[in-house]
Design brief:
By secondary structure, this protein is mainly alpha-helical. The protein has one domain. The chain is built from five helices and no strands. The longest helix is centred in the middle third of the chain and has 27 residues. The chain is elongated, with a radius of gyration of 24 Å.
Length: 140
């Protein structure tokens, strides 16, 4: 029986850390936002599941990449930040895929709160002065 040597993959991951993180961090963020957007816009289940699947794979790769650093004893704030990012992206993707109605309700509450906040700020803040250069065509 032949065993696969994962030490080569771990070493490759650590050697190419900057390139891997430069791709995975923005990709995780963008795909998670895309998943949230698809659910918010009430798109088809097929599109949502595809977006969740791709986001899950990329977040899992990021977790494995961080795991290679933990395996050799590198414990830094960066490794915890990357692990937190991947975990958050996974949680949001799964939450929006499984509990879409609660996510839409949360968006509705947030939209209502934002609307009321903007209205309250407009009533408190002074309006800019009107320009005196407006020419009234009815005036002669």
């Amino acid at each position: 029986m032949t065993w696969i040597d994962f030490s080569f993959l771990a070493e490759f991951s650590r050697d190419r850390c900057i390139a891997i993180c430069a791709f995975l961090v923005p990709a995780n963020l963008l795909l998670t936002v895309q998943t949230l957007s698809l659910v918010a816009r009430n798109r088809s289940q097929a599109k949502i599941r595809l977006s969740v699947a791709i986001a899950t794979v990329l977040a899992a790769i990021l977790v494995l990449h961080v795991g290679t650093w933990f395996a050799i004893g590198v414990v830094t704030p960066v490794t915890f930040i990357l692990l937190g990012l991947a975990s958050t992206c996974l949680a949001l993707s799964f939450w929006t895929a499984i509990y879409q109605s609660t996510f839409r309700d949360l968006l509705q509450v947030g939209q209502t709160y934002l609307y009321k906040t903007v209205l309250a700020m407009r009533s408190v803040l002074p309006l800019p002065p009107q320009s005196q250069n407006n020419v009234n065509p009815n005036r002669q």
